[in-house]
Write the structure tokens for this entry.
Amino acid sequence: MVKKIDVTKFSNFMNPCRKTQIIIQPIMRGGIVPEEVQKKLFEEGWMRVGYAICYNCLEGRSDRISKPPVDDFLTNLADFFGGDFAEHTFASRAAQFAVMKTIADEISEDSKNFTDIVLTDPLCHYTTAVAAEMAGLKLIGVPHSGYPDYKVEPDSYIERVESIKKETGKLPALIAVTHVEPHYGNLNPVKEIGKIAREYDIPYMVNAAYTAGIFPVDMKDIQADFLTVSAHKSMASIGPLGFLITNDEWAKKVFKESLMKIDQPERILGKKMVNVFGCSVGGLPLISAIYSFPYVIERVKRWDEELKKARWFISEMEKLGDIFLIGDRPHNHHLMHFETPIFWEISKHHKRRGFFLADDMIKMGIVGLHRGLSKHFKISLYGLKWEEVKKVRDAFYYIAQKYVTEFKLNYEVPSNEELP
Amino acid sequence: MVKKIDVTKFSNFMNPCRKTQIIIQPIMRGGIVPEEVQKKLFEEGWMRVGYAICYNCLEGRSDRISKPPVDDFLTNLADFFGGDFAEHTFASRAAQFAVMKTIADEISEDSKNFTDIVLTDPLCHYTTAVAAEMAGLKLIGVPHSGYPDYKVEPDSYIERVESIKKETGKLPALIAVTHVEPHYGNLNPVKEIGKIAREYDIPYMVNAAYTAGIFPVDMKDIQADFLTVSAHKSMASIGPLGFLITNDEWAKKVFKESLMKIDQPERILGKKMVNVFGCSVGGLPLISAIYSFPYVIERVKRWDEELKKARWFISEMEKLGDIFLIGDRPHNHHLMHFETPIFWEISKHHKRRGFFLADDMIKMGIVGLHRGLSKHFKISLYGLKWEEVKKVRDAFYYIAQKYVTEFKLNYEVPSNEELP
């Protein structure tokens, strides 16, 4: 028998971040949904039903629906990223899986030239590894330069391809590179790697989950065969939703239709695309991505200003003392990873230990630091107004000053007034 | 270069079904989101950001988040369906894939007893076939009785298991049955099939996408190892979202953690669950499912009343003349499939051809008939108030009367006044 369930906790829980707080969590900043889009979704009644986009589905394929304009949206999205063909997927991870599955099918049909290895960047997102594992592929990374830069050289891809060739007599089945990696926000040399992939004739996937929708990305320019995109990470959209963009050649394979039959009585499934679960539903997230698309088209043009904010913030944080950025210098992305020995020192004296930092920030209306961490943290200020960026800077200064004084620590934190 | 994109069409499109229309599309009725849930989602600011649930994620696994109460919700959900363990997935199709993948791994490790065949019901949802295809498994269906009942006998599973055994010397790797199939709304004999699966010791999956959250479902009672659920189809939730519920024994396998390593430098992925993409994000759909859960718990208790509505509607429609239900009689589900020669006859005279029916219904505020169909259609009135059910009945009578008169057809449609 089913137990009695206490339902009050499911009716009454609240959002830790309702309306006015400043969000600084790096996986969230690119997925902030414009207020007018939220309003449209609510007021147009798109939240009324789970299958929000399926009223006028004639073909059993969400990508072919024209009311709302999913078909037009996907066509324009492919264009926007320099590709021939786009499909929506459950998330970038599902897009990556579709690619890996296609590659696995390719080599199982023709294993003469390619071995079951995906060559990737050493700091790739975990979803690249999971997608490879789901598709039964192995993963090999190139090396990075280690602390504190974690730099990856394009030539290391050549070296690794050669060593794989030497060992197996074959090429890796895919080169899969994270456009900007999620640990330090380092921009990978995707164009140079694209050139290498082209020279060896190895299929090339770029996971642009952190970049597509943030700054201009053109897959032709980087010679990518596949671009995987996260709508909730970088296209101002409700999640889960991703996109897979590809060229005409690969579209036939990666978006192939089902061959499945159920015999006796025989039924054929027709148009359903195997590698993306037949049809990826879409729902409210897809509506939100379409509404946000005009906004995303505009915001990528303002990337310079966004980068200026990040770099300004880095220099301000480093002036605080005993705080420094890890990763690319100058930095090329909004995701920043700081080492913060000063906060680590404070945590040793604080009764909340490492939790003091995120907790104090929350009290000041700033949410999204990973709770418990004080030795180092990741942060993003993408899309915030300058006064909000300054407010975040001021909050770190305030917290540092407060505890340095309280615990009589051997630091000299400049006062905010000294700063521009 | 990226072409200039005309963005107005992406900013200004409207919802064909905003607030007041009656929805009768069978895949939608179980996924109508309660108005108070829509309001909470909007007003609590859950639409503010794509990664809506990740503020307090400490472990990189959405299922372990306690604020909002995802962990508690999943525990209670497993209980609610008589299982030991529940995970959220991108949709029921992704839950089915996780099962198929697990089964494929099982037989690749031990192919002595099982062959790579999934035995399924002949009218299974296409996602079952796609999931099998994605996992590299074959699919074989049992026969049904054909037009007009499409009945499936439990014994046909025994016969098919025996014939597979005879042919391959092995058992099918999985029996996968759609609890209620999506074509005629027929209730499959899941309990009897469960007994058969148990006797042969074949793993057993029930796809409850159309039933879990509609009427009480207890997987222990039907002896299922896996229950796949669709939140947007039958749990009053925004999509895409599904659940996979299983027992302790299978949970270890289907939700196994990643073994993937990226060498040089070595990185291990730790807690990410391979078969569900590491972590299934959740986002706004998951929040909506939690808010709707108390409502779903209550509504399954009122199933008798819902079934009464469906059966009343069937008898009313059949009184109209030259309309009849296909599938189970008496009917056991809210999904109804009617053959409607009378509307087919009208369509031959109508300048809008088969489109007249859905179009006329829309004009009367009733949306969700498949546009273009008039020879037969699927419909559901689940969760509608009695006066709305009657309004739908009246609309069909009105349309029939109008065109029978206008086109001088040889039908006698009773007037509404004659009806109770």
